[in-house]
């Protein structure tokens, strides 16, 4: 079974050294991505979703460091790479970053350089990794732009990001992500910066590309509504940990963690008059001083008592492939 | 793009006309004219000047014409390349200016190159190594560089080289070459003298530029497009040179044109201290002695260069930043 995984993240701990102190952004994140699978990572702002993805890509900024854990990646030949052991800017890691895994960023306006053409920025990736000349790279880039639904790509290739609309920029970003035919695509809030009307189109495009290229996908979002149609498996994150994970239907039908339940309640529904939209009380605690025990106990409606403040609950399988870390689902006698 | 340039050109001409009037007004502004200060000078030396003589001189120099006639005479000649006559030097202004322009440009351009060649790598380096020991070291040095007045540095360097090395570094030539015709020996003599003004003029500029480059680059390094470029698997140094450095350089490229007037008027005080045969001290003297055609020509020349410089800057900005080009 392990060999069908493309990515295995185990006990990932990432710290940021800041002037105010150590920020523990990730505190033991575990999740796997199977080949061809679409996996969602959901959570509020600041829960570590993006940090997880840039850690996998080894693009953490200078102040961030991977303190503990393993990230294993299986390439096109199913060869195992221990991502953590590689030098972030080393040749080995760079042969993975790009041709093997690539990333779509949140804000396509700022994620492209404003003074280089879209074509230049996509061709750069092809030219660097593949043994092709400029005209071939250009041909491939036009093909990619066409594939993601940009009209007149022969013309558009020479335009600058500010000449594209928001949705087109994100399409171009997807085209850039697909260049060099990676296996794993990480989409970090790919629709957050877009108009609602464009969001659905871009998500549909990502889904189509995933099927066409047989990609494994990690979709990071704070929007559970987005997750439902896009992924097979969901990881719910809270304060640098995965607190619940399971097949998407399970998570929606039988959410086990109080946090997941609250998140689901706070999705606006179009049906019926349910009155006020539910929200989760309080706000995410300060990352400089994490609460002891289950990190959610400060906001949890179903808090049992002292046990919740004692230690992080163990991972419990409550149904097939559905895991949760919560004392409500743990036999307290054997703790 | 051509529409953009046409626009700028038209405004440039209008600006120049207004500036020429203003410069003429400015040189007319001080009470009296060159003749009054000349006569005072003559009288103080005991030479008696009769009223007829004065009237004759006034008429000859056209100083009694109405102001606008004087203006049109002046600007008309200026357009044909005749910048008038210097009373103080008793020579045409053209000769005076051209004589000094060559060496002025040599000094200005070498200091500009010195500044850029030293400042950009250090600026990039300190930004990449932000808050490291070497960053603090260069920051310290550049603050001192910014804070030291150029002429003081000139005095110190002159003192040190004379006291400890026995070399007189004032001027641009050793006495034996000053009037000699150009030869290889004279060029090497020039190079021996050149480094002092270049270092003096360049130091403050370098220090300032290091700070600006560092700040610009630090702003850019954190931008998302840098992470995007890295996510393509491109090596860090290539990413940094292609994206953030390129964008951090934009303000410098686009203000390159503004260096143009500085090439002539820059570092006047340093030039006085080092007794360099450049245009700076000439301008200063002309202003002091109300040598109106010389001073006026300088002001006009500087304005023309400023306007042309701005025009060049606009075009360069459009070239380096597509967001301007396509508006």
Number of discrete helical segments of chain A? 12
Strand arrangement across the biggest beta sheet of chain A = 6-7-8-3-9-10-12-11
- Terminal CA distance of chain B: 9 Å
Report the strand count of chain A: 12
Largest interface, with counts of residues having CB < 8 Å to the other chain, equals: A-B, 33 and 24 residues
User: Which spans of chain A of ≥5 residues are poorly predicted at pLDDT below 50?
Assistant: none
The helix/strand series of chain B, from N terminus to C terminus, equals HHHHEEHHHHHHHHHHHH
Q: What level of helicity do the residues of chain A show?
A: 25-40%
**Contiguous helical run count of chain B:** 16
Corresponding CATH architecture of the largest domain in chain B: Orthogonal Bundle
How far apart lie the N and C ends of chain A? 30 Å
Commentary on this structure:
Chain A is built from twelve helices and twelve strands. Chain A has helices at 49-56, 91-96, 108-111, 118-129, 134-147, 153-156, 166-178, 196-212, 224-230, 248-253, 258-265, 307-310, and strands spanning 5-18, 21-34, 38-42, 64-74, 80-82, 101-104, 184-188, 216-221, 233-238, 241-247, 316-319, 322-324. In chain A, helix 4 (118-129) crosses helix 5 (134-147), helix 5 packs across helix 7 and helix 7 (166-178) runs parallel beside helix 8 (196-212). The two termini of chain A are 30 Å apart. Chain B folds into two domains: 34-82, no CATH class; 96-325, MetI-like (MetI-like fold, Orthogonal Bundle). Helices cover 78% and strands 1% of the residues of chain B. Chain B has helices at 2-28, 34-44, 51-61, 67-79, 93-128, 133-147, 150-165, 175-178, 184-221, 224-231, 236-254, 259-265, 268-273, 279-288, 292-320, 322-325, and strands at residues 85-86, 91-92. Chain B has a two-stranded antiparallel sheet with strand order 1-2. In chain B, helix 5 runs antiparallel to helix 6 (133-147), helix 7 (150-165) packs across helix 9 (184-221) and helix 10 runs antiparallel to helix 11 (236-254). The longest helix of chain B is centred in the middle third of the chain and has 38 residues, at 184-221. The interface between A and B is medium-sized, with 33 and 24 residues.
